[in-house]
Amino acid sequence: MARTSRSLRARWLGSKLRKLRLAAGLTLADAADAIHRDPASLSRFESGASPIRSNLLLGLIDHYGLNDFDQRNEILELCDDVANHGWWDPFKTFLTAEFADFLWVEERATAISLVDVVLIHGLFQTPDYAHALINDDPSLDDKLAVRRLTELRIARQRILTRNQAPQVTSILHEAALYHRVGDRKVMRVQLDHLIAQADNPNIDLRLLPLGTWIHGLGSVGTGLAKYQMPTPYPTVGYTENVSGLVCHMDDEEMDRIERMYAQMESQALTRDATMRKIKSIAKEI
After folding, report:
1. Which residues belong to any copy of the HTH cro/C1-type domain (predicted)?
2. pLDDT above 80 (res 91)
3. Do both 212 and 107 map to the same domain?
4. Domain total of the chain
5. Residue that wins the pLDDT comparison between 30 and 8
6. Of 24, 49, 83, which residue is a domain's last?
7. The pLDDT value given to residue 245
8. C-beta separation of 236 from 227 below 8 A
9. How far apart are CA 10 and CA 3, in angstroms?
10. Could you tell me which residue, 5 or 61, shows the higher pLDDT?
11. pLDDT band for position 2 (50/70/90)?
12. Is the confidence at residue 159, as pLDDT, over 90?
């Protein structure tokens, strides 16, 4: 599946440019003329459909009267991000544009809050657990795709041990620990790995006990996530269902995700109780 050029960060940059133009009281034609481009070209920049070069961007923000040093740097940094490639580019044959955007968000996040209802999150999966899941995907009949997507999933976990690693808070429904993925050995090793991961100082892992009912849990799908991003990016939310990942950024959607997460967090076990429960389940496998 090929990636498109209209990435999430390109749309963010375009949205900022449009807001600056409107604040300056300029039409597309007025602004385009200032950088010697036609209105259609500027429209593509603002929609994120076409990348804008930094020299043209500088011309625009000068014309818009944006003089604040920090704001100018934020926009130029965002322009650089649009142009930069990610570590996942060698996998792009197997990625949708939406999932490539997700990987970029996950990579840049300073704090990550997760809720997983059905399966253990990809950041905590062992290679065998990940392979068993991906290999069981009916939409994949290519062994190379299964192998590369498994490698991609494990490579994502490097953010947990890098310098300035994000703080990750993970709420895992206890039911996910009983969903057999692979054989008994795969599950036992996976639970042992989950216990070991919880010793990481930047990981807070907590279980949502079986039988816990929380209003809205059914609307989560298989999971939700919240990514706190560095300036100049907004906080980004994702929910996941059978159709894939859905990105949420507007205030109303993020408020809903915040409320749902807070409700689940309030019902989750403590860290110590979580560890005792996972160890108990591991012994039963």
Report:
1. 17-72
2. yes
3. yes
4. 2
5. 30
6. 83
7. 87
8. yes
9. 13
10. 61
11. very low
12. yes
> What's the chain's length in residues?
285
Which residue do the tokens 């792009």 mark?
Answer: 92
Residue 54 CA from chain centroid, whole number: 26
The pLDDT > 70 percentage for the chain reads: 95
| Sequence-distant (≥ 6) Cβ neighbours of residue 221 within 8 angstroms | 117, 239, 240, 241, 242
Residues 268 and 127 in one domain: yes
Identify whether 1 is part of a domain: no
- CA atoms within 13 A of residue 242's CA, in its CB half-sphere: 2
Residue that terminates a domain, selected from 50, 66, 83: 83
DSSP for 143-186, please give it.
HHHHHHHHHHHHHHGGGGTSTTPPEEEEEEEGGGGTS--S-HHH
Give the pTM: 0.85
Q: Quick: pLDDT tens for 266-281.
A: 999 999 999 999 999 9
Residues 6+ apart with CB under 8 A from 223: 114, 115, 116, 117, 118, 119, 121, 239, 240
Please determine, for residue 5, whether its predicted confidence score (pLDDT) is greater than 60.
no
Q: Is 123 exposed, middle or buried (0-12, 13-18, 19+ CB in 10 A)?
A: buried
DSSP per residue, 265-281: HHHSPPHHHHHHHHHHH
The per-residue pLDDT for 207 is 96
Separation CA 274–CA 285 (nearest Å): 17
- Structural domain harbouring 12: 8-83
DSSP symbol at 118: S
H helices present in 64-142, as ranges: 69-83, 97-108, 127-135
Computed over every residue of the chain, the mean pLDDT equals 91
Relative to beta strand 236-241, strand 223-228 is: antiparallel
Assigned token pair, 74: 């934020």
